Structure formats: structure tokens, C-alpha cells
Amino acid sequence: xxxxxxxxxxxxxxxxxxxxxxxxxxxxxxxxxxxxxxxxxxxxxxxxxxxxxxxxxxxxxxxxxxxxxxxxxxxxxxxxxxxxxxxxxxxxxxxxxxxxxxxxxxxxxxxxxxxxxxxxxxxxxxxxxxxxxxxxxxxxxxxxxxxxxxxxxxxxxxxxxxxxxxxxxxxxxxxxxxxxxxxxxxxxx
Length: 189
Prior knowledge:
This protein is mostly helical. It has helices spanning about 1-25, 30-55, 60-85, 100-115, 120-135, 145-160; strands at about 170-175, 180-189. The chain has one domain (about 30-189). A two-stranded antiparallel sheet has the order 1-2.
């Protein structure tokens, strides 16, 4: 009888211990926090580059096309997040699929590439790829969340964007310092 009581006590302690251990939040290292913050910033770089470029070139048709692509990306991303309700790897909420950061970033990159060519698209895709990697490294998304976001973003941009007809000498590049960052744009007539 004493042996049976000991087994039950051991089982209850094991069960309670596992319950409390699994309820503890996942600790995120400072490195992951820094990468998460950088992904918040990098997600905005390509859409801002789209806006700056279309305004600098007075490309009103491109501005309209980019806006349509952006609205579609945001709308479909939010709809899928709430319809699917997939938990994030860090368990912070259940809106992991698809990655909104990645879809927005890839929409901007695909818009730039489709509208202004591969010369400008390759750096934009590099920023978008970093955003996707950073979201998985920071445990905000799994790789399939990021892949779905990228496909959604590129698809939206390709659906609405047509190549730019005029030729201009346009230079767009990222800038970064110790405490600031930004985008440099130069247009020569």
C-alpha cells in the first residue's frame, strides 16, 4: 500500500512539475530581441523605398499600382491570420500565418523589381529575405509562415504592377549609422 501511495505522489509531482514548466514563458535572448526589432525596421524599408521612388519620379501610375498591391497584401494577410489562427513559435499569440512583415517586405521588393527592373530589385529582395530570416530567428514565425508571406507579397505585386516606361538615372540605397538609418534616393535629369 505504501508503494502505491509513493507511485501516486511521484506521478502527481511529475504531472504538476511538467505543467508548471510548460507554462513558463520562453526566454528570448538579447540577440533574438535585437533581430526582432531589426525585422520590424527592415519590413518597412521596401515599402518606404517604393513610396520615395514613385514620388521622386512623379510616377503616379506606379504609386497607384503599389497602393493596390499593398492593400491586397495587408487585407489577405490579416484575413488569413484570423481565419487560420496558428500559434507563433514564441507562443505570444495565435496570428503567425502568414508573416505580415515578410509579405509587406516582399510586396515592396517585387514592386521595385517589376516596376523599375532587376538592378533595383536585387537589393530590395535582399532586404526582404533578411526580414523573413529575422522573423524566424526571433521565433515569431516558422519557415512556412515566412514562405507564405513571401509568395503572397510577390503575387500581389505582380498582379498589380507593370514595368515603368520612362528611363531615369535613379539611385536608391540604404544608409545606416550608429543611431540612425534611412534610405538615400538620388534622381539625375
